[in-house]
């Protein structure tokens, strides 16, 4: 997957860039496929067994979950980048201190987020203008999902640390386990087959809860059995504390990255508020279109995650020429892979939507409109996602946040409401290519002419050269 160090640990600072990037991003891509396929199959079970109202309920619930996950996403990403830079600079003990502090801090935040999700689900769903016929189902689904947030966040933190240290394969194996468990348990708990109780939409949430819990616990057992080099042993218990120097770095760098996710979430909340005003069929169409667009985004997300880890280690090593080659190699991979997926999904659009929606209903026609207008614009999304990932890996996190804020909240949302009000539901989706084009242009400009290379997350800055 990546060139090994003298001690047998993976390194992303050596070897051919294209091959290393491809092999490192492939398990991330497959993991993203698993997670999205898992969600898609669960959506199919809900749609087939419980109908369009239940689909609208899960669409609203998943938007909320994404919003609350954003609260700690930035902290975990800052930890990954800090670990990567320390490993690139060959400061392994400092990387382990980051793991210890991140574990404690992340655990506290995940409990807070889970509590908020359980207690305030109904209120938040009301704020989102959730259709009345879907409200009760959405509350039932959401509360169980958020009861499992500590397991979900814990799994994602360990997975991110592994990737930050150069291991993308291990997370994939345990994502596979989680997906298989979730897919198998969903129909059993929804319909109550065999010894399982019939739980309806709550059964789908319970299946997800159990799959994430089991995968997280087994992943921890595996890492300790394999003596993973960044694990916290009994001799390292003192590292499981809130090191305030590390906390300040995590907050200073992580908060803007978390806010970037919040910007995306708020944008989605405004958008689904608009879509909900068109009724449950529109909400179901939007939810399914989101499922399909998530597949289109997968190459960009995988390559973006890979270039972030690779760039962080190389920045820590002071190898800036390699960082630039990683960036443009990642952009090229994204354009090719995302473009191919866009073409395939346009050819099989109705068939893909028909996996989730009735072939003769109004919802599938609305979904076709959304995809016809918006799918191709995710090529632009991929370009700016890769470039922004490299910029953030240096510790420069403010400008990518500003660009996301401008493109999504200043441009997309007002434009979508304006177009929807003036020209109807179909016109809303032109806001996607417009906002992605602006975000891509701003990120490329800052990468070329900004001062992001002077940012640093380590105590001693690495020399930055073009």
From TrEMBL:
A Pfam family matched in the record: MatE
GO-annotated cellular components: plasma membrane
Transmembrane spans: 21-41, 61-83, 104-125, 137-160, 172-190, 202-225, 257-275, 295-316, 328-348, 368-390, 397-415, 427-447
Superkingdom per UniProt: Bacteria
Listed InterPro entries: MATE_fam, MdtK-like, Membrane_Transporter-Flippase
Protein's cellular compartments: Cell membrane
Predominant cellular place of this UniProt entry's protein: membrane
Annotated keywords: Cell membrane, Membrane, Transmembrane, Transmembrane helix, Transport
Keyword hit for Cell membrane: yes
Membrane association type: Multi-pass membrane protein
Gene Ontology MF annotations: antiporter activity; xenobiotic transmembrane transporter activity
NCBIfam families per UniProt: matE
Name this protein carries in UniProt: MATE family efflux transporter
């Amino acid at each position: 997957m990546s060139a090994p160090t003298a001690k047998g640990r993976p390194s992303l600072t050596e070897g051919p860039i294209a091959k290393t990037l491809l092999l490192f991003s492939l398990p991330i891509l497959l993991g993203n496929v698993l997670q999205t396929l898992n969600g898609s199959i669960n959506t199919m079970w809900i749609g087939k067994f419980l109908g369009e109202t239940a689909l609208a309920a899960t669409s609203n619930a998943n938007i909320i979950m994404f919003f609350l996950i954003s609260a700690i996403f930035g902290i975990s990403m800052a930890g990954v980048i800090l670990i990567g830079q320390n490993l690139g600079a060959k400061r392994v003990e400092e990387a382990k201190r980051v793991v210890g502090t991140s574990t404690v801090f992340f655990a506290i935040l995940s409990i807070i987020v889970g509590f908020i999700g359980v207690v305030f689900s109904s209120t938040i769903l009301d704020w989102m203008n959730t259709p009345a016929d879907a409200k009760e189902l959405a509350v039932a689904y959401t509360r169980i999902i958020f009861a499992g947030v500590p397991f979900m966040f814990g799994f994602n933190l360990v997975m991110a640390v592994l990737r930050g240290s150069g291991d993308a394969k291990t997370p994939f194996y345990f994502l596979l386990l989680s997906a298989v468990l979730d897919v198998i348990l969903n129909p059993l708990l929804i319909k109550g087959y065999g010894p399982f109780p019939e739980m309806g939409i709550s059964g789908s949430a319970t299946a997800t809860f159990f799959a994430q819990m089991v995968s997280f616990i087994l992943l921890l057992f595996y890492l300790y059995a394999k003596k993973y080099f960044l694990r916290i042993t009994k001799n390292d218990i003192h590292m499981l504390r809130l090191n305030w120097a590390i906390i300040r770095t995590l907050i200073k760098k992580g908060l803007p990255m978390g806010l970037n996710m919040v910007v995306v979430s708020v944008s989605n909340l405004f958008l689904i508020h608009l879509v909900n005003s068109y009724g449950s069929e529109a909400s179901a169409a939007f939810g399914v279109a989101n499922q399909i667009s998530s597949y289109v985004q997968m190459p960009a997300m995988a390559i973006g995650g890979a270039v972030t880890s690779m760039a962080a280690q190389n920045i820590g090593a002071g190898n800036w020429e390699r960082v630039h080659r990683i960036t443009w190699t990642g952009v090229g991979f994204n354009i090719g892979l995302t473009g191919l997926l866009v073409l395939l999904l346009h050819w099989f659009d109705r068939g893909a939507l028909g996996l989730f929606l009735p072939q003769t209903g109004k919802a599938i026609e609305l979904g076709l409109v959304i995809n016809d207008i918006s799918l191709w614009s995710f090529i632009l999304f991929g370009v700016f996602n890769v470039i922004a990932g490299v910029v953030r890996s240096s510790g420069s996190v403010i400008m990518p946040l500003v660009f996301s804020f401008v493109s999504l909240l200043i441009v997309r949302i007002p434009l979508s409401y304006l177009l929807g009000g003036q020209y109807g539901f179909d016109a809303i989706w032109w806001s996607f290519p417009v906002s992605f084009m602006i975000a891509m242009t701003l990120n490329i400009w800052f990468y070329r002419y900004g001062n992001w290379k002077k940012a640093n997350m380590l105590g001693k800055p690495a020399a930055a050269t073009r």
